[in-house]
Amino acid sequence: MSGKTSLLKVILLGDGGVGKSSLMNRYVTNKFDTHLFHTIGVEFLNKDLEVDGHMVTLQIWDTAGQERFRSLRTPFYRGSDCCLLTFSVDDSQSFLNMGNWKKEFIYYADVKEPEKFPFVVLGNKVDVTERQVSAEDARQWCQENGNHPYYETSAKDDTNVAAAFEEAVRRVLATEERTEHLIHTDTVNLQRRPRSTTSCCS
Ligand SMILES: Nc1nc2c(ncn2[C@@H]2O[C@H](COP(=O)(O)OP(=O)(O)OP(=O)(O)O)[C@@H](O)[C@H]2O)c(=O)[nH]1
């Protein structure tokens, strides 16, 4: 273990209602709420974890998926280290919109080399009985659109949620060019970004 902590920003994008807030809440607080309100703007939570011997403070940004909140969420894309593209397996339209979410992120985050940027794809709500999107179709999309890792998750049942976030961390750490940008200090330098485990802008 290096003894140093890196602050990583990951952002959840995807259509309204696919379960972005639920995934963040399940991962950070281990709670699930069946009556969540739509997110307005963005919210974030921090979680400390260790991945392959690296100490990481993961700053998870949850965005509003509804189109009417576009101008409230896009200013927060910049500075993201990884983007979690999320759809719901019981909503084929949310799957079809994935390409648009990726484009929106690349544009507003001003990603210079999209082919090198770490994306992870989450097919959420795998606990449902009536799927509209198969795992096979999702994997194929991931393969054809940048070879992104794919995780089938359920925020409700806590299936693969931690695995997906840990994969995001691994992808960031594995990106060679990230190394020089990581904040390596003995304590986390939170001055660059908001400090507390709290929500904002909603
Ligand atoms: N069955 C099931 N329902 C889920 C799951 N995750 C979220 N939900 C439900 O789906 C609804 C929407 O969840 P949210 O987490 O608010 O979705 P969101 O993507 O954050 O939505 P926006 O804030 O509008 O962008 C809520 O009623 C959740 O309880 C899941 O894994 N399985």
Automatic annotation (TrEMBL):
Chief location category: membrane
The keyword Lipoprotein appears for this protein: yes
Location(s), subcellular: Cell membrane; Cytoplasmic vesicle, Phagosome membrane
One GO CC term, this protein: lysosome
EC numbers on record: 3.6.5.2
A Pfam family it matches: Ras
UniProtKB keywords: Cell membrane, Cytoplasmic vesicle, GTP-binding, Hydrolase, Lipoprotein, Membrane, Nucleotide-binding, Phosphoprotein, Prenylation, Protein transport, Transport
InterPro entries, A to Z: P-loop_NTPase (IPR027417), Rab9 (IPR041824), Small_GTP-bd (IPR005225), Small_GTPase (IPR001806)
Cofactor: Mg(2+)
GO molecular function, one term: GTP binding
Keyword Lipoprotein: yes
Membrane topology qualifier: Lipid-anchor
Catalytic activity line of the entry: GTP + H2O = GDP + phosphate + H(+)
GO biological process, one term: protein transport
SMART domains to which the protein is assigned, alphabetical: RAB (SM00175), RAN (SM00176), RAS (SM00173), RHO (SM00174)
Family classification: Belongs to the small GTPase superfamily. Rab family.
Name of the protein described by the UniProt record: small monomeric GTPase
